[in-house]
Design brief:
This protein is of the alpha+beta class. The chain has three domains: 1-70, no CATH class; 76-205, Orthogonal Bundle (DNA polymerase, domain 1); 213-381, Intergrase catalytic core (hpI Integrase, Chain A, Orthogonal Bundle), CATH 1.10.443. It has 16 helices and ten strands. It has helices at 48-53, 55-70, 79-88, 108-122, 133-145, 165-184, 213-221, 247-258, 263-267, 300-307, 325-335, 343-355, 360-367, 372-378, 385-405, 407-411; strands at 2-9, 25-32, 38-45, 95-97, 100-103, 226-233, 236-243, 274-275, 280-283, 294-297. It has a three-stranded antiparallel beta sheet with strand order 1-2-3. Strands 8-9-10 form a three-stranded antiparallel beta sheet. Strand 8 (274-275) and strand 9 form a beta hairpin. Helix 4 packs across helix 6, helix 7 packs across helix 11 (325-335) and helix 12 (343-355) packs antiparallel against helix 13 (360-367). The longest helix is centred in the C-terminal third of the chain and has 21 residues, at 385-405. The radius of gyration is 26 Å and the shape is globular. It starts with a strand and ends with a helix.
């Protein structure tokens, strides 16, 4: 087995004025198997010395991973062994070739977290002893555990926030897949998931929050001008005038509202992906959830906002950051908007399309949904008053048309 390593530094995140990466140095291991096929893995570090210090440990991990794939699956007996194998094999990070995912999964980090929850529940339980009732067992256990994220996840189960049923269902879906794969691999004699009704998708509370016109005005206004910050120092209440202008966040919000782009798609967007004259933005398949390239509308107000950015027309990415959680939270607080997630802007985009008379099929295409059911279930909101008003106006128009056509029926 041959493993070579290289250590190199990364440039800036985006254009000329972009900040440098926090973890600038990259360790890359290249493995060549007995057939001459090469594969690589990379890790990021803050300093070059950190990367050098971690070379031997990463090499040992890679050797163990390669050797584990060569082992006979008959050596796997317990759920934990099978789950760990799955994380390194079919739940590994996505491998992209010519813009398409050819192996692994994109959301591997979130999936690995859910698998770790499954391991915490079942541990070293023999695979041969699993039955369909174990799906119900996990469901009850996971609901009892509550929200395991962040600092609150370290509290006792009774002190944690409740966990949503949709999160439990995602864990159940992975458990079901693991058991089906175990059956296909010959580790268990039958598909024990048949007959289980543990996954109850209909019981999930579909999110319906959208942004109202008034909230939109306040949210965009919160990204500009100055704001007064109140704070205490030595027992005295002080005020500070701070610059609240954030054109990059305003551009991000408009891309979510007017183009329906996901957070990750926006952050990976490059200047070359925009056609400002035609009003079109191209979202590459390597950046989308479905691995399909699509085009979305680029409105005049969004194009104007993008043209005003400092790095307009430069090479590379448009946005010189990898996240905007704090800026988003600040904008919501200043605008006095509650209960709004960034993904709700995407739901607002689809809802407004349908209010404007765009068919649900076209709306699904513009949003990049591979299934029409996704658009119908999660992105069509009747909580938006504009949707209800539009429906009422259409009914009124239809009623008036019938009255004109059949006036004698009303007269009688």
């Amino acid at each position: 087995m041959k493993i070579y390593h290289t250590i190199f530094s990364r440039g800036k995140k985006g254009g000329r004025n972009a900040k440098a990466y926090a973890n600038k140095w990259v360790l890359r291991l290249t493995h060549t198997d007995e057939n001459g096929k090469k594969s690589t893995r990379t890790w990021q570090y803050a300093t070059k010395q950190d990367a050098k210090d971690d070379v031997e440990r990463r090499k040992a991990e890679l050797v163990a991973l390669v050797e584990s794939k060569g082992r006979d699956l008959d050596n796997i007996r317990t759920f934990k062994q099978w789950a760990e194998y799955a994380k390194a094999d079919f739940y590994r990070p996505a491998v992209i070739n010519e813009g398409r995912k050819v192996a692994g999964i994109k959301a591997h980090r979130q999936t690995h977290i859910l698998i770790d929850h499954l391991i915490a529940c079942f541990g070293d339980k023999p695979l041969a002893k699993f039955s369909k009732y174990d799906l119900e067992r996990y469901k009850i256990w996971r609901l009892e555990q509550g929200d395991l994220r962040g600092e609150k996840g370290k509290l006792k189960p009774k002190d944690r926030n409740p966990v949503t049923l949709s999160t439990v269902n995602r864990g159940l879906a992975i458990l079901k897949h693991l058991l089906i794969e175990a059956h296909d691999a010959g580790l268990i004699t039958k598909n024990v998931t048949k007959g289980s009704k543990a996954i109850d998708a209909d019981a999930e509370n579909a999110r319906t929050r959208t942004l109202t016109d008034e909230e939109e005005m306040r949210l965009l206004a919160s990204c500009g001008g100055t704001r007064t910050i109140e704070y205490y120092r030595k027992g005295k209440k002080l005020k500070l005038e701070a610059d609240g202008n954030n054109p990059y966040l305003r551009a991000v919000i408009l891309l979510g509202l007017d183009s329906g782009m996901r957070r990750g798609e926006i952050l990976k967007l490059e200047w070359k992906d925009l056609d400002l004259e035609k009003g079109v933005v191209t979202i590459l398949g390597t950046h989308t959830k479905t691995q399909r390239t699509r085009t979305a509308p680029l409105t005049r107000r969004t194009a104007a906002e993008l043209r005003a950015l400092e790095n307009f027309g430069e090479e590379g990415r448009i946005f010189p950051f990898n996240d905007f959680k704090r800026s988003w939270a600040t904008a919501l607080r200043v605008a006095k908007i509650e209960g709004l997630n960034f993904h709700d802007l995407r739901r607002t985009f689809v809802t407004r399309l349908q209010t404007g008379g765009v068919s649900i099929g076209i709306a699904a295409e513009l949003a990049g949904h591979s299934r029409l059911e996704t658009t119908q279930k999660h992105y069509t909101s009747t909580d938006n008053a504009a949707v209800v008003r539009d429906a009422a106006e259409r009914i009124n128009a239809a009623n008036e048309a019938r009255l004109i056509q059949w006036p004698e029926i009303i007269d009688e």
